[in-house]
Amino acid sequence: MVRARGFTLLEAMLVLVIIAIAYTLLPRMVFSGVSGAELRSSARAVATGLRMTRDKAIHSKREASLTLDLEQRAFIVPTDERPHKLHEQLEVKLFTAQADLVSDKVGSIRFYPDGSSNGGRVSIGAGGRVFEIDVDWLTGHVTVGEKTGDSRA
Prior knowledge:
The N and C termini lie far apart (76 Å). This protein has helices spanning 9-30, 36-60; strands at residues 64-69, 74-77, 80-85, 91-95, 106-111, 120-126, 129-135, 142-147. The protein is built from two helices and eight strands. A four-stranded antiparallel β-sheet has the order 3-2-1-5, covered by helices on one side. Strands 4-6-7-8 form a four-stranded antiparallel β-sheet, with helices on one face. It has 153 residues and is of the alpha+beta class.
């Protein structure tokens, strides 16, 4: 008796089920980092916190500071004393005046009653993408931009 070569319907269905399971699980295992939307959202949250801090300084006619904890990946706005957490896999850097560094992991960006600031930059990145939130020292204006990987001059 000659046996026909090929796959049975059951074998073909089993292979399709295995492929479907791998298709749904593989992206989660490979890309478990921060999505582009989460990265952009975190950058906007920090920028909003900086703008709120500037508004607080202007309206209260007193200095106000946004404090950033690099180790905890959190920032505190003076209008809301609870820490605002960022995604734990983000790389966060703070560039500010030496006088506003509490430690190597905690620092602040200060705004004055006239709207100006001590200036600085918060850099938030993940997976090769980096957003930079710049604070102009003269005007206190906050801008968000994506840093490009091309460093050629």
